[in-house]
Amino acid sequence: MKLRGEIPHWVLHLFLLVMVVVTVYPILFVFTVAFSGQQNLDFVSLPPDPTRLDRVRALVPWPDEVTGSNFVSLFTDQPFARWLLNSVAVSAMTTVVGVFLACTAGYAFSRFKFPGQRAGLMSFLVSQMFPGTLTLIPLYIIIVQWMGLGSNYLGLVLVYSTTAIPFCVWMLKGYFDTIPKELEESALMDGASTATIFIRIILPLAKPAVAVTALFSFMTAWNEFVLALVFLDREDMYTAPVGLRFFVGGYAEQQWGYFSAGAIVAALPVVFLFMFLQKYLISGLTAGAVKG
Prior knowledge:
Blueprint: H1 9-35, H2 52-59, H3 69-76, H4 80-111, H5 117-127, H6 136-146, H7 153-177, H8 181-189, H9 194-205, H10 207-223, H11 226-231, H12 240-248, H13 256-276, H14 278-289
Helix pairs in contact: 1-13, 3-13, 4-7, 4-10, 4-12, 5-7, 7-10, 7-14, 8-9, 10-14, 12-13
């Protein structure tokens, strides 16, 4: 028996199907342009007098010829391999620094009482309410003018790490709160130091939350564009997002084939890292979100 006003199942199925098409179509379009072997968005050749069927065919994301020439040229004729290695280096350093700072800060906020504890947590929360571009000018003054780290990966790593810390500290703090304090008290009675307890007991138990922290720190550095564009002014130091911008920006010919191929290649490390850490992600996010 259907309730009055209940939406029929076929309407829901149709709506879900439309949303799937809307979601998947841009991804298929990127793959089509990348494997078309061309540098423009017209991956289908229309006849001089196209019919309506020909125009519909032009909207279907499938090229006339499938080739990997754009991917080959991306690494042989373009400096994309260099940009990709730069992104790997910056993201790896950001992950190490971000995880270290977030773990130590989250543990301190969870286990110790000190002046300014609540104000510090609230400042982390408030900082997430504003877009990152608001801090662009102050960061430029601090990193470039005061510290002299312009066109330096160290300055970029410091900026990325501090950007990711607020979210990571809140999540880790919530996860550390779920670990019983009795474990630490027992270890203290056995003569273990605070550092030993943190490294050998707390961190192994907090692997899911640490995995989420590592993934978030890596993605923060890997996908960021604006700060890297501002702080890096040498082509050989560009990260992958900044390098991709020059395929379709400026006054030169738009190279959409290289751009699409580079976007696919740049997405692979994040996909592989997500798959590798997938078993930790759900428990890390849920446990760190329900208590804090």
